[in-house]
Structures are given as structure tokens and as C-alpha cells.
Specification:
This protein is of the alpha+beta class and 261 residues long. The chain contains nine helices and five strands. Helices cover 52% and strands 13% of the residues.
Length: 261
């Protein structure tokens, strides 16, 4: 996921690049004999309108002034050779890549739209995974199995779960008597979720429940039917998730076919 997040960061990057690649484009203006391509002006205008600026003579004039100022500063930077110094060439190349990647991704997503049937299938799958019941639970997490057994023994003798929870390793619940939020079993690691569903209201696990985090003692406080949000309400999130999965698969496929040395 971290790699995809970095890719997403590139996708939202933007840059105005004055380079020989624009030599064939119609000039919008010239500064000290150096042309500012019309395509750069149009890209800047589009960017400003996407951010909410109304298209008007004032905006057009402001963009022209901004582009002229940028060109002046870029020329001064080139006079000093900064375009070839340190990491600047690499940063310029990354900016170019970002623009190309953004254009490619937009084109790819438009050419491969997520269907309504796909989104509904994803919604039904998530609902089925969540189940029809959610649970209000408490737990105490410890490092060793013997420590969990000792806690269970104290519970058997009548000691309060909330007091024993103070020794829990879970910082988010130890000061709340081990209390957790209402959740479906699927929200927890598998051993925890499975143990939780076997408890009746007021019961606690008689044996420690092992997970990758340690050993749990779990108590069920209550349960209730789960009412998932309607499809239309979560459709935008489903669309985003499906698109992200689509992009991940695309990158995976490209990597599988690529020769990387």
C-alpha cells in the first residue's frame, strides 16, 4: 500500500515545464526571446479553474503575469546553471513523469470504467464478511499465556474485569476497563473474532485466546443486529476502492512484464 500511496502522490503533483519539448507549440508570450507555449498557459488556466477560480479576464491576466514571472525566474536559474546542479535535474524529471502518469491514469480509468455490477458485488461481499451481528466487548491483552490464565483465575474468584484490565498491553482500552467499540467479528484478528462469537452476553473466555499480539482474555458485554449503510451512501468509497485496486493490478501486471535490472 505504501508504494501505491507514493504513486498517488505523484499523480497529484503538477508542474509547469519550459523546455525544448514545447518548441513546436504556439507561443503564448515571449520573455527575453524565450517563448512561453500556449499549451502551458492553457494547462495553468485549467488548473486554476479546477481549484474553483472563475474563468474571467482577471484570471487570464493574473495567469499571464504569473507565467511571465516564472519564466523570468527560471531564466535566472538557468543562467546560474541550477538546472544542471544537484538534484534539480532529477526533480525536473520527476515533475515530467508526474504529468505523464496523471494523463495516463486518467485515460486508463476512463477506458476501463468500474461497472455498477462490480460495485454492487463488492458491496454484497463486504456485507457478507461483516455478518449480521456486531458485538460490544472487553479484552485484556498480555504477553504470556500464564499471565492470561492467572487473569482468568482471578475472574473466577470474582475480581472485576475492569480492574484487571489495567494490566493490559492495549493502550487504547486498558484505561477504559478493557472496553472496545461496537464492531463486527471481521474487524478483529481471526482468533479474536471467532472466540467472541462463541460467547454469550456477560461471559468471558475460559482459556486464553492467542493472536499475533499476545494472549487475550475476552468478555462479551452485549450484541445487536448490524445495520450496514445503504449502497448509495457508500458507493463513492466503493468506487474509490475499486479504482485503487484496478490501479494496483495494472502496476502489478506492468511489473510482471517489465525487464528490471
Amino acid at each position: 500500500m505504501q508504494k501505491i500511496s507514493r504513486l498517488a502522490a505523484l499523480l497529484i503533483a503538477s508542474a509547469i515545464i519550459s523546455a525544448p519539448a514545447f518548441a513546436q507549440s504556439k507561443a503564448f508570450a515571449t520573455v527575453n526571446g524565450q517563448a512561453i507555449p500556449q499549451s502551458v498557459y492553457e494547462a495553468f488556466i485549467t488548473q486554476q479553474k479546477a481549484q474553483g477560480a472563475p474563468d474571467s479576464p482577471e484570471l487570464q491576466n493574473a495567469v499571464k503575469e504569473e507565467l511571465v514571472n516564472r519564466e523570468l525566474l527560471a531564466q535566472e536559474a538557468k543562467k546560474k546553471g541550477l538546472d544542471k546542479k544537484g538534484t534539480v535535474p532529477g526533480q525536473i524529471e520527476l515533475a515530467k513523469q508526474a504529468v505523464l502518469i496523471s494523463a495516463f491514469m486518467k485515460d486508463y480509468v476512463q477506458a476501463h470504467p468500474i461497472s455498477e455490477a462490480q460495485l454492487k458485488a463488492q458491496y454484497d461481499g463486504i456485507k457478507a464478511n461483516l455478518g449480521s451481528t456486531e458485538y460490544k466487548a472487553r479484552h485484556i491483552l498480555v504477553e504470556k499465556e500464564d499471565d492470561a490464565k492467572a487473569i482468568i483465575a482471578k475472574l473466577e474468584k470474582g475480581e472485576k474485569f475492569s480492574e484487571l484490565a489495567k494490566q493490559s498491553k492495549d493502550p487504547g482500552s486498558k484505561d477504559k476497563g478493557g472496553e472496545l467499540d461496537w464492531s463486527s467479528p471481521a474487524s478483529y484478528v481471526k482468533p479474536f473474532g471467532e472466540a467472541l462469537t462463541k460467547l454469550k452476553k456477560g461471559e468471558y473466555t475460559k482459556t486464553p485466546v492467542k493472536s499475533d499480539f499476545g494472549y487475550h482474555v475476552i468478555q462479551l458485554d452485549d450484541s445487536r443486529p448490524m445495520t450496514p449503510p445503504p449502497y448509495e451512501q457508500v458507493k463513492p468509497q466503493l468506487q474509490q476502492r475499486a479504482t485503487q485496486q484496478q490501479v494496483e493490478q495494472l502496476v502489478k501486471d506492468l511489473r510482471a512484464k517489465a525487464k528490471v535490472n
